[in-house]
Specification:
Strand content: 35-45%
Number of helices: 4
Shape: elongated
Length: 155
């Protein structure tokens, strides 16, 4: 899968090899900028699981941040001192992991009089950004091609 290939690229990168310890990372759902329906949440989950299994990063739960705040608010009012979790004690992320999939079209010339073929490429990019400096530390890409026949209209 594109997610597995992306994780392999990330894990093999100089950036990841240069980390002395597993940093805390905020991961956001991959953006789908194509005309296809793509389960980008599943792609994001696959990447997170594989990176965690490799022991290379720790992740804060960005998708459930509102739920966490509600639960902490409830606990602050209702839980006993011994079991209460301190609000504001969540660990801050050092990096942010974001990604997007885009569609690229490249025409391959005339085939026959009634149609032309084109290849549609899906390019998956992931960025790891240092949240303190705003610098993009690494931005690997993975591409997949899919051929499509498209009729020529109005010639």
């Amino acid at each position: 899968s594109m997610s597995a290939e992306m994780v392999d690229k990330l894990l093999a990168s100089g950036f990841m090899k240069g980390l002395s310890a597993a940093p805390i990372v905020a991961i956001f759902t991959v953006e789908n900028r194509t005309t296809l329906h793509i389960d980008t949440q599943a792609m994001t989950d696959t990447m997170r699981t594989r990176i965690m299994d490799a022991g290379r990063m720790k992740f804060v739960n960005t998708a459930r941040r509102d739920d966490l705040l509600k639960e902490q608010g409830y606990a602050a009012k209702n839980a006993t001192q011994e079991t209460r979790t301190g609000i504001g004690k969540q660990l801050g992320a050092k990096y942010m992991l974001t990604g997007s999939i885009v569609e690229l079209t490249r025409a391959s010339g005339r085939e026959v009089r009634v149609s032309s073929k084109e290849e549609i490429y899906y390019q998956f990019t992931v960025e790891i950004t240092d949240l303190e400096t705003g610098l993009v530390e690494i931005a690997p890409q993975v591409e997949r091609a899919r051929k499509a026949s498209k009729p020529i209209i109005g010639w």
